[in-house]
Amino acid sequence: MPRGLADSPGPRTDRPPATGIRRQVPNLLSVTRLVILPVVLYLVTLPAAWAPWAAAGLMILSMAFDGLDGLLARRWNAVTEFGKVIDPVADKICIGAAAVMLVIYRGFPLWLTVVVLGRDVLILLGGCLLRRRRRETPMSNYAGKAAAFVIGATLVVYTLRTGYLWLETALSWLCAVLMAASLAIYLYRYFRLIREKGAGSASTGGDHGGEGR
């Protein structure tokens, strides 16, 4: 599997770590997405003609913040442990909540919502296990970000009720494919890191044994 797809985008190591407000800006953008979410969910429930457009606009703003927080974190070398957690968590909460609400009010496919939520639960469980075993928080990867973008676009299309069935169907299946691909890549990374942990432990044990002899 291409290493570029499986690995996480890293910070600019040629620059000193960001300090002060720069270090917190990416995290503030992630938190802002969570603040926007209740407003989006409320707008989806309104019957007014302007409400879907307002909801879609806020969704697009949230997607822009999602791309910007990672870009700034890498460019400014402002990747933090909190940021590694809040960014993917914000992705999953925003996408999952919006999908459930759109199933109720906009005819969003229930099967796709199950796929999205199921993948996110597996990734969160894997991340928790990895953190316990390696004391390491995995970052989002490029495939996961691409999947989140396409899912966001699909949510916007359903929010606007465009009436283009072919577009809704195409985006839904593209989402499913990207969901499966991002999950496969995450599992690949997860087991690779576990193997590296096991190899590291074995190597350490062997060194200690050699000293004892």
Describe the structure.
The protein is mainly α and 213 residues long. The protein has one domain: Four Helix Bundle (Hemerythrin (Met), subunit A). The protein contains seven helices and no strands. Helix 4 runs parallel beside helix 6 (142-160), helix 5 runs parallel beside helix 7 (165-212) and helix 6 (142-160) runs antiparallel to helix 7 (165-212). The longest helix is centred in the C-terminal third of the chain and has 48 residues, at 165-212. Residues 1-5 have low confidence and may be disordered.
Number of domains: 1
Q: How many individual helices?
A: 7
The average pLDDT is 82
Proportion in β-strands:
under 5%
Highest CATH level, the class: Mainly Alpha
The CATH topology, please?
Four Helix Bundle (Hemerythrin (Met), subunit A)
CATH architecture: Up-down Bundle
Could you give a short description of this structure?
By secondary structure, this protein is mainly alpha-helical. It has one domain (3-8, 19-197): Up-down Bundle (Four Helix Bundle (Hemerythrin (Met), subunit A)), CATH 1.20.120.
